[in-house]
C-alpha cells in the first residue's frame, strides 16, 4: 500500500516529465522549420502559406532567433482558450467542438464532486475511531486512511458515503442532462445553418431487389417515381469498381516511375537521359529512354482504363444493388430515410446518406441476410477477444523465448549467448507479443467493425470505440482490480452468485486506488503532454521534407495533420470517467488527479484542434449518445460496486438505501434516450421543411438535379475525371456521356452554389475546408484499395529547393 | 413419483370429465332456447334472427324434440372444420384467424417432435443399463423410467438427447419462420384488401405543444399545413369529457326510472298511475305522477347536457393536447406516422391511429414526461407482484381465520362453533384470499397496463398478457419445479452462481413431469371443454331473459357473445408451449398430452370463433410477434435447463455441444425480428401508394374530408347525437353547428362508401360486422366511465312476452 508520500513523488516525477514535454513543445513550435508540424490546420484552411519568420536572414527561416518568445513558452495555453466555440465549429468542424465538450463536462462533474468529497468524506474517513485529523503525521501516512477502508465496519458513518453518492449521482445526471440538451440543440442548429450539401437531399438505398429484365437503375427509378412521385429527383448507381481500382493503382505506379525519371533528368539536365529495360523488374530486355517509355505506357494505360471505366459504368453485372437516391427537398429525403418502403422489410432499406467523404464504399455491397450473420460472428469474436485474448498471446510468448529464437535462427546463437543481449532478450521477447497486440488492437477492432458491414466511416469508428471500451473495461479496469486474466475472472464470476460479484470487486476497489492514481498520471498527464509534442509526425515530416518533397504540393502532402482518433480517445476518456465516478465516494483523493487530467487534456486538445488536427469527416456529434450512455453505465457500475463494498462492511442498515439509486439512474437514462437520441438519428420534418422554404425563397430558380447527379459517384471515377479534364479531352467526352443521361435539365441553370459543371469544383464541395489533396488522403487512410492521388501537376512547379518557405 | 398407471387413471378421469362437458354441450346447444347462447355470432352478423325450430308446436320453441339430432352430438366438430381460413377472416376477423394459427403451429411443432422423441429417446432412456424394454412390467412401472432420469450419469447416451434437442430446435425454428412469414404476408394482404377505413388515413398526434395565444386546433392545423402541405386534410381535436360523461350516466339513471314506471303502468294499465316522492331517495317530499315527473326531469336534463356539450366542445381549456390528424392519402398518413415531426422529440408524437373502437380515450391526455415515470412505477410493481404477491395474501390469510371472524362478527360465534361449519370455514377461509387474488389478477394487470398509458385497447391487452405470462412463468412453471414461493426462489437465485441456477432447476425438471401432465389434463383438457359449454353466459342469459328482457333489443343486449380474451388465453397458451418445449427432450411422454390439448383446443376455439365470439376490436394480428418471441424464449429456457440437467449428470463430454444452440436461437430470433416485425408496426409506403392509386382510379371524385371529419369524435358525443336526431330537432341543430366548421366541403359529394351525413350511419362504419348495440357494449366493458346505451326506443316494441322467438 503506497503512502501519500509515494504518490507525491510519483506525481512529481510525472509532472516533471509532462513539464519537459511542454518545454520541448514550447521550443519546437516557435521554430519556423516546424511550422507545418505544429500548425498544419492553418495551412489546410488556407490562412497560412509560409511560417511566421522572426527576421529576414537565412537562419531565421529555420530557427527562431527572437529570444523573447522563448520566455513565454506557455503562451499557447491562453491562445488555445481564445477561440470561441462557434469559431471552433467553423474552423475545425462540429465533431471537434463537441469532443472538447466532453472534457468540460468532465470538469463540470468532477470539480464540484471533488470539493464535496474532500470536504465531507475525507474528514469522515479520517476521523473514524479517534480524531487524529489535526496531527501532522497523518499527511504522510497510508493513503488508505483517507479512503472508505478507514471506516470501521458496521459504522453509521456510511450514511455520509451514501448521501454523497446520492448527491454525486444527482449532480452528474443534472450535468449530463444539461449537456445532452445543449449538444442536441447545437447539432440541430448546426444542421440548420449548414450550406446546401448533397447528403441533406440524399438517401442511401440498400438491397434493391433484382428484377428480371430490369437493370438496377431502371428498378430504382421506377420504384421511387412510383412511391415518391412528388419529391424524387434522380439517383446515382453504385458500381463494383474493385478491378478498376486495381488499374488505378497500377497507373499510379507507372506515374511514380515516370516522375522519378523526370526528376532524375531535371536534377542533372546536362547528363544523358535516363534509360531502363522493359523486361521483368527492369533487369533485362530492350534498353529504352525511360521518360518516353513511361509516357507511352501511361498513355496506353489511360486508354485501357477508359475502356474499363466504360465497362464498369455500363455493365449491369458490376452494378451493386445499392443506390444513392436524391430528392428535390430535404423534406422528401427525410421522409424517405425514416419510412419503410417495401412489404419485405429487408428490401429497399433506406437511411440518410452519410457525407460523400464519410462513406465506406466496400461495405455497400453486403447483402442484408449476411449482416445478421456477420454481426453474430463479430459479436462472438469480440467476446472471445475481450476474455480470451491472453491465450494466443501466451502461446506466442511461449514460442518467443531464447530457445525458440535459437531454433529458428541458429546462426544468431553466438550473439544471443552474450550476457547483456541474453538478459535484454529475456526481458523483452515475452512482452513483445503483448505490446504488438495492444498496439494493433484498435486497428483490429476497426477491421472487425468493417466486417460488421456499416457503411459510414464515422459509424465504423464509433463501433470500434465501443469494442475498445469493453476491452478496457474488462482488462484495464476489472483486470487491475481483480488479479488474474479476464478469462479467470469470467470463470470465477460464472461460479459466484450475482450478489457476490459486486462484493468481490467492491472489496478490492479501495486497495487499487494508488495504482489508478499512477495510471492517471502516466497514461493521462504524460500521455497528453506527449500528444501535444507530436514527436512522430515531427520526425516523419522532416524526413519526408529531406528526401521526397519537391513541390509545394508535395510539402502539403508531407504534412500529417492527424485527427482526433475517436476510436482510441473516446474509450480512454470514458475509462477516466469510470475511474472518477467509482472512486468519488470510495477514495476521494483520486479526484484531484482526474480533474487535473481533464483540465490539462482540455487545453491540449483545444490547442491541437485549433492548430493541428484536420477531421476526415463530419458526423455532427453523432458520438454523443455513446458518451452519455457510457457515463451512465459508469454511474451504475459505481453504485453496484459501492453496494458490494458496503455489504462487505456489514453496513446492513444503510446499504438498502442504495438499491433505489440504480433504478433512478436507469430511468433517467431511458428518459434522456427518448428525449434526445432521435435528434442524433432522424432529421425532423419541421426543420427540413423550414430550411426548404427558406431556400426556395432565396433561390427560387435552383437546378438541384445537376448539382446532385454526381455527388455520390465513387471517388475513383471522380479523380480520374479530373485528370482527364486536363490530359485528354477525348476521354473526357466519352466518360461524361455516361452521365449525360442524368443531366438533361442541366442547361437551365448551370452555375449554382453546390457546384458547377466542372467536376473538379463539384468535387470540392464535399470538403470545403481543405484542398483536394487532403481529401484524397482521407480516402487513402480509409481504404488502401482505392487510394489514388490527385497529383497530376506534380512537375509543373518542380524545383531543386528544399526549404524554400 | 407417480406410475404410468396413476397417470392413466388421472387421464381417464379428466377425459371422462371433458366428455361429460361435451355431452352437456351437445345436448344444450341444439335446444332452441339456448340458441342465442351458443350461436350469438350469427345473430350479431345478421345471418340469423330466430333459432332453428324442430317443429311448429309450443314446446318446440324451447326444447329440441327432434331426437335424431341427439345421436349426432359430436357433429359440431366437422362443422367447425368446414369453414376455410379466408372465410373465418371475413366472418370473425383477422385476429381470430391468426389466433387459431397458434394452435396449428403448436401441432406442427409438437406432433413431429413427439414422434421423434418417442421413437428415439424413450427407447434410449428405457434401455439404459439393461435392455428390459420388451418386458411387460415396464409399461406399468415408474414414469421416470421413460425420462432422462433413467440414463446413468456420465453415459454417452446423452448425445442422443443433445441430437434430438438440436433437431427439435431446428424444426421449431423452421416452423416458426414459416409461420411468421405466412402471418406477416396475410396481414399485409388483409390490410391491402380492406375497405377504406378512417384509421388508414389518420395519425394520432400526442403532446401538441401549448402555443400561447393559439388554441390546440389552430396549432395543429398550422403545423400540419406547414409540414405536410401536400397531404394534410383535417383533424379532430380530443376533448376532456369526464364531466360530460358523468352527466350521461346520470341521465341514463333517470331514463331507467322512467322506463321502470312506464313498464309498471303498462303491465297493469287499469291501476292508477304510479307515483313517487321528489325528496331524498324518494322517501319524503311531494307526491307526483312518476311518469310525468321523470319525463320532465329528462327533458330538463337534456337541456343541461346540451349546454355542457357545447361547453366541452368550445372551451379550449377542456381540449387535450392530442389530435387525430387525417390525410388525403394512405401514403401521407404512413409518412406522418413513421417520421419525426419536431426538433424536440417529445413533442408532436405521431403514430398510426388505432381503429376508433380500439381507442382507450382516457389515456390520450397523459403527458409524455409522466409516461417514463409511469412505466418505471409499473415495472417495479409488476416485479413486486410476481415475486412478492404471497406476502399480502399470507397477511390476509392470517386475518381471515376463525379467530379473526369471531373478533369481527362476534354474533356469528354460535354458528361458527358448529363442527361442520367450523371445519368448512377452516378449510375454506385461508384459500379464499388466494383464490380471489388469482381471479382478479388479469383485471389488475390490465389496470396496470392502463396506468402505463397505452392508448389502444389492443396494446393494453397485449401488455397485460405479457405481465400475466411473467407471472405464470415464475409462479406456475418455476414455482412448481422448485418448491417454495417466488420470493424464496429469488432469494436463493441471488445467492447462487449463474451456472448453478439452471442446474438447480434442471435437476428438478424430470421429477415434476407427472405434475405437469396432470396440470395439462385439468387446466387444459377439462378447461377447454368447460370453455365450449359456456356455463356462466348460459345461466346469465336465461336469468336476464327471465327478468329483464322486454324487447328484441333487450334480448340482443342479454346475449353475451364474449370474445377471445387475449390477456388470459395467450399467456396460458405460451405456458403450454414452454412445457412442451422443455419436456420434449427430458420426458417425452408429456408430448402426447400437449398434442391432444392443442388439437382439442383448436377444435373448440374454431367452433367458438365461428359461432360465438365477437371481437371487440381488430388489431390485424399485432400479437404475433409476442407469440413468436415467447416461443423463442421457451426454446432458450429449455436449452439452458437441459444444459443444467446434463452438467448435473456429469455429461462433461457432451454438454459443451449445447452452448452453441442458444446463440443460434438468439440470432435466428434477431433475424426474424428484422425480417418480419416491421410488417406489424409500419405501413410500407409501397403498399400505401398502390392502394391510393387504385382508389383514385376507381373513385376519382371522392370527398375524403367529409368522411373523416367525425370518425374520431369521442363516442359519447356520437351517441348523444343519435338520440337528438330522434328526440329534439333543436338540440340537433345546436350541436351540429360545432362540427359544421369542418364540413365546408361536405356538399360536393355527400354519399360515399365510408359514411353519409347521417351520424348514425357514419357511426356504423367503425364496426361493420355488428349492430350498434354491441358497439356500445364494447365501450361499456372498456370504460365504465363512459358507458352509455342506445336504448331510446326501448318502449316502441314493448310486450308482455318472454320467449317469443
UniProtKB/TrEMBL annotation, chains A, B:
<dbReference type="InterPro" id="IPR003864">
    <property type="entry name" value="CSC1/OSCA1-like_7TM"/>
</dbReference>
<feature type="transmembrane region" description="Helical">
    <location>
        <begin position="376"/>
        <end position="400"/>
    </location>
</feature>
<dbReference type="Pfam" id="PF02714">
    <property type="entry name" value="RSN1_7TM"/>
</dbReference>
<dbReference type="InterPro" id="IPR027815">
    <property type="entry name" value="CSC1/OSCA1-like_cyt"/>
</dbReference>
<feature type="compositionally biased region" description="Low complexity">
    <location>
        <begin position="772"/>
        <end position="787"/>
    </location>
</feature>
<feature type="transmembrane region" description="Helical">
    <location>
        <begin position="12"/>
        <end position="30"/>
    </location>
</feature>
<feature type="transmembrane region" description="Helical">
    <location>
        <begin position="420"/>
        <end position="447"/>
    </location>
</feature>
<feature type="domain" description="CSC1/OSCA1-like cytosolic">
    <location>
        <begin position="200"/>
        <end position="363"/>
    </location>
</feature>
<dbReference type="InterPro" id="IPR045122">
    <property type="entry name" value="Csc1-like"/>
</dbReference>
<feature type="domain" description="CSC1/OSCA1-like N-terminal transmembrane">
    <location>
        <begin position="7"/>
        <end position="179"/>
    </location>
</feature>
<protein>
    <recommendedName>
        <fullName>CSC1-like protein</fullName>
    </recommendedName>
</protein>
<feature type="transmembrane region" description="Helical">
    <location>
        <begin position="158"/>
        <end position="177"/>
    </location>
</feature>
<feature type="compositionally biased region" description="Basic and acidic residues">
    <location>
        <begin position="788"/>
        <end position="805"/>
    </location>
</feature>
<feature type="domain" description="CSC1/OSCA1-like 7TM region">
    <location>
        <begin position="374"/>
        <end position="646"/>
    </location>
</feature>
<keyword id="KW-0813">Transport</keyword>
<dbReference type="Pfam" id="PF13967">
    <property type="entry name" value="RSN1_TM"/>
</dbReference>
<feature type="transmembrane region" description="Helical">
    <location>
        <begin position="575"/>
        <end position="605"/>
    </location>
</feature>
<dbReference type="Pfam" id="PF14703">
    <property type="entry name" value="PHM7_cyt"/>
</dbReference>
<feature type="region of interest" description="Disordered">
    <location>
        <begin position="724"/>
        <end position="805"/>
    </location>
</feature>
<comment type="similarity">
    <text>Belongs to the CSC1 (TC 1.A.17) family.</text>
</comment>
<dbReference type="InterPro" id="IPR032880">
    <property type="entry name" value="CSC1/OSCA1-like_N"/>
</dbReference>
<feature type="transmembrane region" description="Helical">
    <location>
        <begin position="468"/>
        <end position="487"/>
    </location>
</feature>
<keyword id="KW-0406">Ion transport</keyword>
<feature type="transmembrane region" description="Helical">
    <location>
        <begin position="109"/>
        <end position="134"/>
    </location>
</feature>
<keyword id="KW-1133">Transmembrane helix</keyword>
<keyword id="KW-0407">Ion channel</keyword>
<keyword id="KW-0812">Transmembrane</keyword>
<feature type="compositionally biased region" description="Basic and acidic residues">
    <location>
        <begin position="729"/>
        <end position="745"/>
    </location>
</feature>
<keyword id="KW-0106">Calcium</keyword>
<dbReference type="GO" id="GO:0005886">
    <property type="term" value="C:plasma membrane"/>
</dbReference>
<keyword id="KW-0472">Membrane</keyword>
<dbReference type="GO" id="GO:0005227">
    <property type="term" value="F:calcium-activated cation channel activity"/>
</dbReference>
